[in-house]
Amino acid sequence: MKIQEGGLRILVAEDDPISRRLLETVLKKWGYEVAIANDGEQAWRMLENEEAPRLAILDWMMPGLDGIEVCRRVRERNAPTYTYILLLTARSQREDLLQGMEAGADDYLTKPFDANELKVRLRAGRRILELQEQLINAQAALRDQAARDPLTGIWNRSAVFDILQRELARSERDASPLAVVMADLDHFKKLNDTFGHLAGDAILRETVRRMAGSIRNYDALGRYGGEEFLLVLPGCDLASGLYRAEQIRRAVTSEPVDTSEGRIAVTCSFGVAATDGLNHQNSDHLVHRADAALFRAKHNGRNRVES
Questions:
Q1: Which of 14, 167, 227, 306 is catalytic?
Q2: Which residue in 17, 30, 152, 215 has the most C-beta neighbors within 10 A?
Q3: Tens of pLDDT, residues 49-68
């Protein structure tokens, strides 16, 4: 992801009005969105905000908090996104510059500043921010991949249980209902033995596609294990959970599945349990109730929904 120069917010913290106005004019000419702080206290308040600018030019000497102290506070905050800090200073001694870098500044510019030098240093800052964006995106992709079932692409058992626990806590906090559905493909072992594992994998993927197309975007669908699936339906009581499960069952069984071995008819059994959000519910206990309902569905003839 490339961070474009135009539209990127940059904080200018400078108590001298002439220097501040000059910086603001130059930066806006280059396409930056400029936020202004007249002193160190104001600069810190803006940088500790969740929507803080990603780039900051801080004057070393300011009333209240100086640029060095603002740098230290920003680095101690350990925010999830990085703030690139350019220190503006009239000091040029190595000891002074080392102090600034040790406080957390990424670069410095001596006064009076040269516009071309400022532009180059800000471009270096943007490259650092771009690299961090790429790293964050890569880490998020790895986390998502680790939470996904490799065959079907839906949540794996651990991930869907984490979602269930979060939704259960939300249900109790908001006193809202929550339904859990256990689903199991009927006679899947026989299908695998008869048509082979490639056909079985195709059936699993198509079943998931049909299930996923029948749920809301805030519902969760995970592979519980083998041919079993767990669905988390926020805001659903038992009656609506049963209704939703029946809709999903019809979608799964609506037509045979195309496989390398031909079109294969598939059916699925469902068990539903729900909480009203008023009483504390353990996630394992809720899943156990849905699993018991699933057992009843299979015992009563399969291809049905039970509670």
A1: 227
A2: 152
A3: 888 899 999 998 888 888 89
